[in-house]
Each structure stands twice: as C-alpha cells, then as structure tokens.
Amino acid sequence: MDFQEVTLLINNSREKFKTRVPIMLMVVMWSLGIIDWSPPRCDGNQYYLYCPFIGRSRLHRKVTFVVSVGWVFTTAPTAYFGAITYFVCFFGLKEHFLRFVIVVVCYQPSLISGTIIFISAFFINRCKKSDIDEFNMSWINLFQESVFLQRINFIKKFNMFILPRLAVYVFFNICSLAVSFVILLLYIEVYNDCLTWVSYIWTASEFIGLIYLAQFCYFLYLYRVSLEEQFKETERFTKGNAGKLEDCTKKVKNLFCSYFQLRKLFLLWLSIIFFSITFGIAAYATWSYKKPEVQTNSTVLPTQYPIHPKGIKKYCPYSCDDPKYFENQHHLLIYNVLAFAKLLIPAVLSFSVMRGLDIKYMWNRFILRLRLISTTDHLDFWNTLIRYTKDLHPENQLDTKLRFIIPVLGLAFGFLGGWKSHE
Prior knowledge:
Blueprint: H1 3-18, H2 23-32, H3 58-90, H4 97-127, H5 145-152, H6 166-189, H7 197-240, H8 245-289, H9 292-297, H10 329-354, H11 360-373, H12 379-392, H13 397-420
Helix pairs in contact: 3-4, 3-7, 4-7, 4-8, 4-10, 6-7, 6-10, 7-8, 7-10, 7-11, 8-10, 8-12, 8-13
C-alpha cells in the first residue's frame, strides 16, 4: 500500500467519523424504536446515508433492535391502559362530563397519537417490501431508520455528542414535564385523600405519554428542519446547474417526494390535535360558564357514583370530583391550570413543530425563490422548471378548507356537548 492509498484511507475514515449520527440522537432513535433489524443502506450517490453502526457487529445491531422495540412495546401500552381505564370509569356519567371531555375526548387522543402512529408505521414497514423506492411518497417511510438518517444528512453543524437543535429538544421536554408537575401538584394539594391505585396508573401513563409526545414532536421537528435545508440545497443545485433540465427536474422531484411525505403526516396528526383542542376548550367554557351557580362553587357538579360498580369501576376515584375539593380557590386554580395545560400544551408543541398550520408555505416559497434566481441566460429552462414545479403541487382549495373546517367542527361539537350536558 503506497502513501497515496494510506492518505485516502485516513481521509475516508475521518469523513465517516464526521458523518456519524450524534450519540444522543441515537438514544432518541432507540427510545422511539427507529432502529432497523438490518443496517441501513449506505450509498455515496443518490442515497448517501449516515451509518451509525459502522464497525459494529451484526449481533450488536440485532440486540439493539430487540431492546428498542421491547422498550417501546412495554411502555406504550401503559399510556393506552390509562386512556382505556379513563373511558371505562367515566363514560356515560353526566356529573363527570368535564373530566371525561378534557381527558378522554381531548387530552388522551393528543397524548397517544404519536405512539399510535409510530406503532402503526412499525408494523406496516415490517409487512411490506424493504426496497427503497426513489419516489415513494407514503408517510409510513418516514419511520424507517434509513430514510430518517438520509434526511438528517441535510442538517449541518452538529457534533458527535450533542443533539441537533438541542434547545428545541429541551423546550419540548420542559413543556411535557410542566404538565406532569401540575398533575403531581394537584394530587398532593387537592386529591391527597381520594386516590386509588387506578389514579397512580393514570399518573404513570400520562407521564409516559407526555415523554413520548415530546420525543415525537422533536422527531417531526428534525424532519421539518431537514426539509427546509433540502429546499435550500435544491435551490443551490438548480442555480448552479441552470440549463440542465433533466438533472434539475429530477432534483425537484426528489424534493417534492420528501415534502409530500411530511405534509401528509402533518395533516393527519394535526387533524387529531386541533379537533381535540377546539372541542375541549369549547366544551370546557360552555360547561363552566353557562350557569352562574356553577361558578360559585366549582366547575363540576356533585359527584355521581355508579350503582353496584363492578370490575375496575370499584377502584375509580369518583370521590375526587366532589365539590368539597374545589371550595378552596387555590385548589380550583390548580384544577383550571391543569385543564388548560392539557388542552393547550399539545397545540403549542404541534405549532412549534410546524411553524404554522401547514407546511405548504415551503413549496410556495420555493417557487418564488426559483423566480427570483432565474436569469435571462436560460429563460426557457427556468420557465419550464418553474412550470414543472407548480404542476407537481397545484393549488388545492380542499386542503385549505379542511384546515379551517376541522377546528370549526371541534368548536361546534364542543359547544353543543357542553350545552346539552346541562339539560
């Protein structure tokens, strides 16, 4: 081996080290189950991917996969158990309408939406073919390790140990922990003598669900940031290769597939989030302020116990909704803060992830940028490329209408439910 071969080998090793996934990001991926059974495809051309397990044995990867999946499928059902027991305990009890709406109808769907999407994608990805389709636009692919690492490659300026966009990750977790803190404060200050073992299961399930929600939001945030960088990279490519229509259209096509995948996932997730939030806020406001006498004591009516409770209902903490716990204005304040935190925190996190209600602004801004960087030297090329880019994603009024119809439906059903519950 001569001197030039040795130098080339050293440079390649350094490049591999620089492009490895940060250790903390690998931990986040592990906690979410984004680890494939086989190593991700590493291609230096179209599909250049990070290879976080270069030099690791196959046994190490398979053990990591089993432990990661085992962790997800052990902890996630705890959150589902909390949602199911809430439903069993409070369904059909008018006097517990407020708790049922806030927790079962609004809070729990937002809380477990991330884990449901993850687990659904896990099974679908394992049941379909593993070949990478260059122009596959299914959002399910976003939960493959190879696709995720490919997209992360667009995010620059991070080292081997610190998470990319660490401040955002901390913010997401602080929001989740803040809700957990208020829950514990309510149990310590207000519900200290009416709790049962079911209450502690609920607390554990909510804590796990909040942590998963924070990780899920960070996962989507990285996708959104990487997509923004991919837009910039595609813009630079088209500017530097003006006149090469085939190469530029292929680059734009790859960009559109990445954008369309993420937008479909965002629209699915936000439909759940914003319907639940608007429904909960409307129902809560109607229930609390429709009758003046409700305000004088509390936002809940005297508790009702099921006749001859059976099964898990024997352990449901129905007495925690007794008005005596809210005669103290300090206790009532804690209860109201927790209610609004459960409704608003998912909205804050989702809005932070998307930076709005939709990411279509990215595509519209990209078309505008193409117009701005176009020159008269290759006028036909730029006109063709811009027309092709617009045709890939035409204006769709249905998407715009749905973004407004879903929250309006949530408000309408919330006001109607809160109004009817008093009759």
